[in-house]
UniProtKB/TrEMBL annotation:
This is Adenylyl-sulfate kinase. Residues 9-158 form the APS kinase domain. Pathway: Sulfur metabolism; hydrogen sulfide biosynthesis; sulfite from sulfate: step 2/3. Keywords: ATP-binding, Kinase, Nucleotide-binding, Phosphoprotein, Transferase. Belongs to the APS kinase family. GO terms for molecular function: adenylylsulfate kinase activity; ATP binding; sulfate adenylyltransferase (ATP) activity.
């Protein structure tokens, strides 16, 4: 049981492929659900099979995708459902459109830059995409031959290198639930 109501938010985890967005998002979802919150995970890969089916990785398509996801996240957050969003969102203008939408609706918007370096992401190469990009098999790979515009003023710039997943996720949770003395990260 919590003592005080918490402020539901959209939590947008932006960063390169392999930065740790999905891993941290899953930790957050678990922790929030464990304390009885209503939460939706809006995963970029999954939404590209439904809401954004048919969209690719051109600047125009990414902007359409990212602002669509922002629309959905805002709708959830302003109705009391946490929206945890591990989506690259590489362009500053699309991220700002989403922030502005939330400001207009009164929903809380928390931008977390998962600031893992390109070198580390390429070393992790969770999905083998960096190797494919190097081999010329994937065009417009973010950070390689398509830009990632680093957030200038995120609510949190999160380091993951040399840290555990639990530690990184706990830092985000501390921002989301500042009044909690105990945070559940199972
Ligand atoms: N060219 C290119 N650049 C970046 N990423 C690529 C690309 N092609 C496919 N993928 C895979 O698609 C996932 C990114 O989807 P997103 O919806 O998060 O991207 S974006 O915000 O529209 O840029 C991304 O997922 P994550 O690795 O979880 O970030 C990749 O698995
Ligand atoms: N502190 C950390 N936070 C998040 N992920 C980490 C951390 N340290 C190592 N990793 C690893 O990095 C990888 C990140 O992959 P993933 O979460 O799929 O990235 P993304 O969703 O950004 O593409 C995972 O294998 C994860 O275990």
């Amino acid at each position: 049981m919590r003592d005080q109501p918490v402020s539901v938010a959209t939590v947008w985890l932006t960063g390169l492929s392999g930065a740790g967005k999905s891993t941290i998002a899953h930790e957050l979802v678990e922790a929030l659900r464990a304390r009885g919150e209503r939460v939706e995970l809006l995963d970029g890969d999954e939404l590209r099979e439904s809401l954004s089916k048919g969209l690719g990785f051109s600047r125009e398509d990414r902007t359409t995708h990212v602002t669509r996801v922002g629309f959905l996240a805002d709708m959830l957050a302003r109705n009391g459902v946490w929206a945890v969003v591990p989506v690259i969102a590489p362009y500053a203008d699309a991220r700002e459109q989403n922030r502005a939408r939330h400001e207009a609706s009164g929903a809380r918007y928390v931008e977390v830059h998962v600031a893992t370096s390109l070198e580390e992401c390429a070393r992790r190469d969770v999905k083998g995409l960096y190797a494919k990009a190097r081999a010329g098999e994937i065009p417009a790979m973010t950070g390689v031959d398509d830009p990632y515009e680093i957030p200038e003023d995120p609510d949190l710039r999160l380091e993951t290198e040399g840290r555990s997943v639990r530690d990184s996720a706990a830092e985000v949770l501390a921002l989301l639930l500042p009044d909690e003395s105990e945070r559940t990260l199972s």
